[in-house]
Design brief:
This protein is an alpha+beta fold. The protein has two domains: 14-141, Alpha-Beta Complex (Sufe protein. Chain: A), CATH 3.90.1010; 146-185, no CATH class. Helix content is 18%, strand content 24%. The protein has five helices and six strands, in the order ββββββααααα. The protein has helices spanning 106-114, 121-127, 130-137, 139-142, 169-174, and strands spanning 14-23, 29-38, 43-44, 50-51, 56-66, 72-81. The strands form two sheets. It has a four-stranded antiparallel β-sheet with strand order 1-2-5-6, with helices on one face. It is globular and about 65 Å long.
Length: 185
Amino acid sequence: MPLPAPYPREILHSRAIQMDGYLRADGLVDIDLHMTDRKPDEVVFADGRCLAAGDLLHDMALRLVVDQNLRIVDAIACIDASPYRVCPEATEVVRDVIGFTIGPGWSAMLKERFHGRKGCTHLTELLRPVATVAIQSLWRLRKGRAEPTDSGGRPQKIDSCYAYAASREVVKMRWPAHFREDDTD
């Protein structure tokens, strides 16, 4: 069901984010992230430059190369449009994620390494949801592998989101032994 019709309105800002995962010929996976921002009005920057209405305020891209265990083996970013001339210098900082594994602690690591003046706010915004894209990209490659379980043999996906709640139909179908009829959490 779509959103209801909005009250009459005018656009103030437009952001588009595209995230794609690609299997490379060498078995690694590229996660490409691209973000653009546009304003419907002319913008005059502090240095006097003028951005025409509808032109790109931000145009940023990032590529992470991961192995099938989600370890980052390479990272590169580019900034083709930004409000300040110094912004493209911030792209080198993304290389600091090389060697990290996307998984638990990802968000905390980003906050620690790229908070404030250490990094570009917008590139960091692109890095935050990369875990979901990377996991979804690896789905086909991991299909057929055993589900990760905790020490008691319970699939780790159970209770990880609304659909996987122990009392929901998805768990009843996939892991009937772990289904709980009266889950009150």
